From TrEMBL:
Phylogenetic placement of the source organism: Eukaryota, Fungi, Dikarya, Basidiomycota, Agaricomycotina
GO biological process: methylation
Main localization category: endoplasmic reticulum
Localization, UniProt: Endoplasmic reticulum membrane; Membrane
Name used for this protein in its record: Protein-S-isoprenylcysteine O-methyltransferase
Species in which this protein is naturally found: Mycena sanguinolenta
Transmembrane region(s): 42-66, 94-111, 151-171, 183-199
Gene3D superfamilies per the UniProt record, alphabetical: 1.20.120.1630
Enzyme class: transferase
Amino acid sequence: MSLAVFFKGILLIIAGLSHNYGLTPKDIKTVYHGQFFETMVLIWAVATRIVAMTLSTFHVIVMVALDFPQHISPAIFETLCPYPSTSIDTLRDLTTTFVLGVFVMVLASLLRGWCFHTLGRLFTYRVAVTSNHILVTSGPYAYVRHPSYTGVFMMLASAAFTYLLSHGNYIGERGIGFTPWKWLIYYWVICVAYSVISLRKRGASRRRVDESDVRRRVAEIQGKGPV
């Protein structure tokens, strides 16, 4: 196995795991209300995690098959690459775009993990203020108003660079556009575009809710009078 294939395989697995980690908060609530995006976000999160990890895994398998054709069944290669392009060998290339995509993916997942840890039980996909809600100003929230959304934007952009735009990506080289699996990729792209639009609206909603909660708490304190 060449050194480039080894390192690219490691980076692909890291990208897939980082993508999963960044979209998997701990102890997430299962009741959602409000915007349509909020009711569909779990389905989208699960689907995009499966797509990213599947693309990483299949890409690694095909690279190994190209390097060791005598040890990999031709049936496996034909299944994973039914319509290979004439530049199929570029799957093994390490490009700047690919490395940059993986690097940003890791940073985004770490930022999201930092948000999960900082918010703890307060993290939810639903824009709401609970009875025990507090205004968090520590961790990444000391520097950015919505660091979790920033992390999602970074993950979406890095996933596009890693899996769609980098030279020698699995989607382009395996001929997926000639298979029924193309609809899964179309679904993924549509979900990403919809998420970008919805997150911008969600950020505005979250800001209005937070500001309303702060005003309410200030009014409560003022109503109590001097201590």
